[in-house]
Amino acid sequence: MTHPVDPEVERAHSYVLSLFRKSTFVDPAEPATVCREARDRFAALPALDPDDPSTWTSYELITADVQTLLGYLREAGVPSSETERFRSLVIRVLRYLYRADQADPGALLAELVHRDWQMWIGEAHDHTLEAAGRLAACLHALDDSERARPVFERILRLRSGKQGDDHPDTLLAACNLGACLNQIGDFGAAFRLNTGTVRRCERRLGKEARTTILATENLAGSLFGLGELERALTLYQDIHQRYRQVSGENALATLDAQAGIAITLHKLGDYEAARVINAGLLPRIERVAGKNYSGTKNTRSRLEMNLRALGRKEEADEVHGGIPKLAGPP
Q: How many CA atoms lie within 13 A of 221 on its CB side?
């Protein structure tokens, strides 16, 4: 479903459009003044959660405005690194682009911002490292592990040197590198890193912390890659329950964890159990994130694969025509 744009975002968009239309730019100093006023208006927006698909319509508008404004700031000679609130907004925009299947423009924007912030506030500044993390995440989403891995490794090295091995930001950086190693297929190295990261996260943050759950999810992926399917399944089931408690039944993280259970069950040969999960998951994820979201498409493909493995060819053929009326959990 399409969600309405947040009224505050609409007002900020209209205000900045009006601001630029009314500006004469006769005074050489005016472009910089107008750009800073526009920047501060956007920076004052409420911090909408980019992981929540209900905000994506708002972020689509915010992202277009921020991309345009970054160009104007550059022309006016105003550093994009000015003001902490604006940097935070840009980081949320980058998170939205990654989460909403827009990794291509996300990587381009993150690379631009990261380069600017390295120059203006330094490579080891928290926001510069967050921009680097968004760049690496988008490259990871694009399966460009050759470029993503050294960025993740540099972030972990800088975080560790600056904040220590057990700082929450360092632990998150270790999680991200662990996910990248899984994607590369270096499951032995990933297992060693993820095992240590889970242990440190549990000790420092507790089992219910999002970073701990993420580290555990990465460990499950390593076990899956190593062929330890029963152990992976147990972890995915535990992760799903923890995400339900922390994030809610229909959060994308919860739905992704349930997908991990279904994938593992299919790999174990329990096609019917996998089908039941995917049949219930498909309408829920489509309702939350839309039919064109990658998670929706992947769930549909997995359901078709389950049905074909069960010899239910006619039902499998119908899957891509719409959400089939198959028994499954609500």
A: 26
* 135 and 6 housed in the same domain: yes
Q: How far is 221 from 95, CA to CA, in rounded Å?
A: 22
pLDDT of residue 1: 57
The CA distance from 8 to 115, in Å, is 30
The answer to whether 254 and 266 are in contact (CB under 8 A) is no
For the segment 145-155, what is each residue's pLDDT rounded down to a tens digit? 889 999 999 99
User: Which residues form the domain of 314?
Assistant: 237-330
Say yes or no: 60 and 39 in one domain: yes
The residues, any chain, with a CB within 8 Å of residue 112's CB and separated by 6 or more, are: 70
CB 302 within 8 Å of CB 262: yes
Q: What are φ and ψ of residue 240, in 5° steps?
A: -60, -45
- What pLDDT does 321 receive? 59
Is the pTM here over 0.90, yes or no?
A: yes
Number of domains forming the structure of the chain: 3
**CB-CB contact of 202 with 212 (8 Å):** yes
- Shared domain check, 134 and 153: no
Phi, psi of 211 (to 5 degrees): -65, -35
Query: Considering the domain boundaries, does residue 232 fall inside one?
Result: no
Of 184, 182, 160, nearest in space to 170 by CA: 160
Examine the domain organization and report whether 151 and 136 are in the same domain: no
Task: Look up residue 100 and give its amino acid.
Answer: A
